[in-house]
Amino acid sequence: MKSERSLKVAVLGCGSVGSQVVRLLGEQADDLAARVGARIELAGVAVRRLDAPREVEVPAELLTTDALGLVTRDDIDLVIEVIGGIEPARGLILAALENGASVVTANKALLAEDGPALYEAAHKAGRDLYYEAAVAGAIPIVRPLRESLAGDRVTRVMGIVNGTTNYILDKMDTHGAGFAEALAEAQELGYAEADPTADVEGFDAAAKAAIIASLAFHSRVTAADVHREGISEITAGDVASAKDMGCVVKLLAIVELNDGDISVRVHPAMIPRTHPLASVREAFNAVFVESESAGSLMFYGQGAGGSPTASAVLGDLVSVARHRVKDTRGVGESAYADRAVLPMGETVTRYHVAIDVEDRAGVLAAVATAFSEHGVSIQTVRQEGRDEDAQLVVVSHQATDAQLSATVEHLQTMDIVREVTSVMRVEGGHE
Fold first, then answer.
1. Phi and psi, residue 429, nearest 5°
2. Which residues fall within 8 angstroms of residue 352, CB to CB, at 6 or more apart?
3. Is the dihedral of CA 142, 148, 154, 159 positive or negative?
4. Are residues 78 and 132 in the same domain?
5. Contact 268, 162 (CB under 8 A)
6. Same structural domain for residues 14 and 130?
């Protein structure tokens, strides 16, 4: 199908994702035109340095360091933002919307921090703000949550949404590596940055959890609302204990309904090897959704990388371009439920607690009493080692985080307890 109409698109950023977006816009120009009903014409690419090496060749006349000037041009219909970070991305997106352009972004950090202001600007301008690539790379999860499951009631979403941490934990599980060794390997292969803090301390996953919670529960949730723990304290012993239980350790983003309120958290947890998420290997991502009518759904694939993320960006671009051709808008923000986010202390789950203890009579009874006094019921307990190496491993029934924290504080004051060596949540199983 030939179309005389064209839509001009500006791309902000030409790194690993932006360069692949530019490549696909050129290679798939005819197919995109057929799907949209108009030609998609690359009008400019904003970069930090004109002479920087790039993965794709971009005509010199399309490159500019004046990003604001590009997005406020009168002829720009669509803007793709893949520079990341808070500023200047926020100002550029707001300027683009105010100028009448629809926006596609992969910026999870900005959406998790200031999404409502962006949604409001898009609504005021009568334009689209799409962001499938912000949560899990190529995995379609944003559109299913805000469109496919719009007629259902989502009750829980549990996902592996950071490839770096999954690669590290997978190597610790399959090769017996320690955290530092697995991290070094991830950095050598390019899965982890030289400064891996955003990944290994859970900041990246927390931003994605906030976006998922906002979509799933029709409420405004920011990264500041997310309880966050990373994986830097996970030891080979924790991973071995999980194996003994038939579990594997994963960094999970979990959002769920709890008596009408929302629990939003990111932390490492043990999950049974029979759970679908347990088989997610290396740097892959997966999101497990539970809803009242559809039941359980799982979305799996590459959660990062230039080409996979660019695929999600182009999918959004086709959608917003179609809307421009038809002079319509897609789905906007849905925050009507306005649910409260529960403090972590009220979140309910199970726990695995490893305790170094004195090897003498009455220890087990005393430890069990400490759990009972704080309302934490013990599901299983086993003793490992003897004498100076004696350790109790306790797995609880469901309890609140506050109850478990109080129990651990109590244990640490007991003469028979040398050290509480590990506390980890247990998810994805049954009582």
1. -110, -165
2. 241, 242, 245, 270, 393, 394, 395, 422, 423, 424, 425, 426
3. negative
4. yes
5. no
6. yes
Check whether residue 168 and residue 116 sit in a common domain. no
pTM of the predicted protein model: 0.94
How far are the Cα atoms of 223, 318, 329, 381 from residue 349, in angstroms, in the given order?
21, 41, 41, 17
Evaluate if residue 429 carries a pLDDT over 90: no
**Helix, strand, coil percentages in the chain from 3-state DSSP, rounded to 5:** 40, 25, 35
Least confidently predicted of 31-40, 51-60, 79-88: 51-60
CATH number for the domain that contains residue 109: 3.40.50.720
Alpha carbon 312 to its chain's center: 15
Active site residue 208: yes
- Give residue 4's pLDDT band: very low, low, confident or very high (50, 70, 90): low
Q: Nearest 5 degrees, angle CA 136-CA 140-CA 141?
A: 75
Residues 264 and 350 in one domain: no
Q: Do residues 23 and 105 share a domain?
A: yes
Q: Is the domain of 154 the same as that of 108?
A: no
Residue 97, C-beta contacts closer than 8 angstroms, at least 6 positions apart: 103, 118, 121, 122, 124, 125, 127, 129
Which of these is catalytic: 108, 208, 243, 250?
208
